Recover the amino acids of this structure.
């Protein structure tokens, strides 16, 4: 067995050139990676290899975002069963992940059971791999610049009796390079489209929030848009009470009746995710039950009662002041990728500013109402004047103190200097 494919100087055959031409059409036909990858592996089997697999994602870190597999009939079902039965428990156990990490083409041939046992995690897995009858393997990383997007792997099996040629290696590397560029373009397109979608959503959100005249209206918009941004099934908005020592629920959505009753008024306890996010003014992202149990063990029992697994708690902060907190819940695990976090944080920020506006407006109206009641009680004489000294308003007590009736006084004409 050798790590280098020994072959005379390979040259492009007519068939290889036809494959490249067809691959160009396949890669240019769609900006959706999944059907493109499916079409590409279909093109490679059986012309180039007995089996082909493309995986996208951070393979050295053990993350697979997309996958396409194709094999000849005598190998297809067994290969799929093996991949489903033995997903790599760690990146170091995957030869594909290792090749992606090294960013170099890996070629293995004359594979035997000893090799299969050396690259698998258990004897059972080694025997299962050997049972597939794979005799030759080519792994080509999909790279763009210094970034590794995934890997293409080609396999030859004993039942077909075929082996890789030098042209096959060149073809695999060329197809991987073209596929990497196509995938990168598709991702850039998706990112631009997502950014445009986020901008449109935030513009529409601004219009809705501009019409909100109460904290309840802002909370309703926040629950609807926040749940939509992350695909959450449940949500809650809580605000601090007048003393600022407790959080009180303002609105909920998606929870079963009575589930949130115990949290209608809660202490600012950092062992509770909502309160912790509010206290620290930082989001709390909990993707599964393990993450919640590790960080908030005392709160874990409630998540089972409420019927959710993952959750996010995001403070409503405007101009450095914490005005409340949004809680979102999911019935299953949730990854909270960067795009989702960016979107929901933008939604929350806009809603926090709107909430600050309505709270300030309400406080100003309440203050004006209290002052107006004092003005109209006539307990003391009160008047207002303009910058040029004209008396613009006065209550009856002040006018009576001067010996006038309201009709005689002439608001807007009398001057303060004349009265003194």
């Amino acid at each position: 067995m050798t790590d280098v494919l020994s072959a005379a100087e390979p040259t492009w055959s007519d068939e290889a050139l036809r494959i490249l031409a067809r691959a160009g059409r396949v890669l240019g036909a769609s900006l959706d990676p999944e059907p493109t990858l499916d079409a590409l592996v279909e093109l490679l089997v059986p012309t180039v290899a007995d089996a082909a697999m493309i995986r996208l994602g951070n393979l050295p870190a053990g993350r697979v975002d997309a996958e396409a597999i194709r094999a000849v009939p005598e190998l297809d079902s067994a290969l799929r069963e093996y991949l489903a039965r033995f997903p790599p428990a760690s990146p170091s156990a995957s030869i594909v992940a290792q090749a992606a990490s090294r960013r170099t083409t890996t070629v293995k041939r004359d594979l035997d059971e000893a090799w299969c046992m050396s690259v698998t995690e258990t004897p059972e897995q080694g025997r299962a791999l050997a049972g597939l009858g794979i005799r030759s393997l080519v792994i080509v990383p999909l790279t763009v610049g210094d970034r590794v997007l995934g890997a293409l792997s080609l396999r030859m099996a004993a039942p077909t009796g075929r082996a890789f040629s030098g042209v096959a290696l060149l073809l695999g590397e060329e197809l991987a390079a073209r596929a990497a560029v196509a995938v990168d373009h598709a991702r850039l397109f998706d990112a631009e489209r997502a950014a445009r979608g986020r901008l449109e959503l935030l513009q529409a959100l601004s219009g809705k929030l501009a019409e909100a005249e109460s904290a309840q209206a802002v909370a309703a918009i926040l629950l609807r848009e926040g749940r939509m941004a992350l695909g959450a099934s449940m949500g809650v908005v809580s605000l601090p009470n007048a003393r600022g020592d407790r959080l009180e629920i303002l609105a909920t959505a998606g929870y079963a009746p009575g589930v949130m009753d115990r949290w209608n008024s809660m202490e600012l306890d950092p062992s509770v995710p909502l309160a912790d996010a509010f206290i620290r003014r930082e989001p709390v992202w909990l993707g599964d039950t393990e993450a919640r149990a590790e960080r908030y063990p005392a709160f874990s029992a409630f998540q089972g009662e409420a019927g959710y697994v993952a959750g996010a708690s995001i403070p409503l902060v405007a101009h450095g002041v914490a005005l409340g907190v949004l809680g979102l819940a999911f019935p299953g695990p949730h990854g909270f990728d960067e795009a989702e976090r960016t979107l929901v944080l933008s939604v929350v920020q806009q809603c926090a500013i709107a909430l600050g506006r309505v709270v300030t407006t309400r406080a100003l109206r309440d203050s004006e109402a209290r002052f107006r009641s004092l003005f109209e009680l006539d307990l003391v004489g009160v008047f207002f004047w303009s910058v040029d000294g004209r008396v613009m308003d006065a209550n009856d007590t002040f006018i009576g103190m001067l010996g006038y009736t309201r009709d005689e006084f002439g608001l807007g004409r009398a001057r303060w200097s004349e009265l003194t």
Summary: The first helix runs from residue 14 to 28.
